[in-house]
Amino acid sequence: TPGAKLWHVADNGATKGPYTQADLALMAASGAIGAETYLWTPGGPDWRRGRDITELADIFSAPPPPPAG
């Protein structure tokens, strides 16, 4: 989406991204990132945990899907 925020993810001292919010939702659903993962968006405040970012609350507060099988 044009103008959509892009997010960067801190991963073991490395910065990954940019990702869209939809990317983050998929990553959270798969367990690749979680509420304690640090995220940053250009023009935003400094790095913050996913659980502390209001606009991403839905991604990190949703219960995980049931295990496959």
Structure description:
There is one protein chain. The chain has one domain: Dna Ligase, domain 1. A 4-stranded antiparallel beta sheet has the order 2-1-3-4. The protein is 22% helix and 23% strand. It has 69 residues and is an alpha+beta fold.
Number of strands: 4
Mean pLDDT reading: 89
- The domain tally reads 1
Structural class, judged by helices and strands? alpha+beta
Q: Tell me the CATH topology.
A: Dna Ligase, domain 1
What's the level 1 CATH class?
Answer: Alpha Beta
The major β-sheet equals: 4 strands, antiparallel
**First CA to last CA: what distance?**
34 Å
**How much is the radius of gyration in Å?**
12 Å
| Oligomeric state of this protein | single chain
Binned strand content: 15-25%
CATH architecture: 2-Layer Sandwich
pLDDT below 50 for ≥5 consecutive residues: which ranges?
none
Dominant shape? globular
| Strand order in the sheet with the most strands | 2-1-3-4
Helix content: 10-25%
Total count of helical runs of at least 4 residues: 2
Q: What's the SSE pattern?
A: EEHEEH
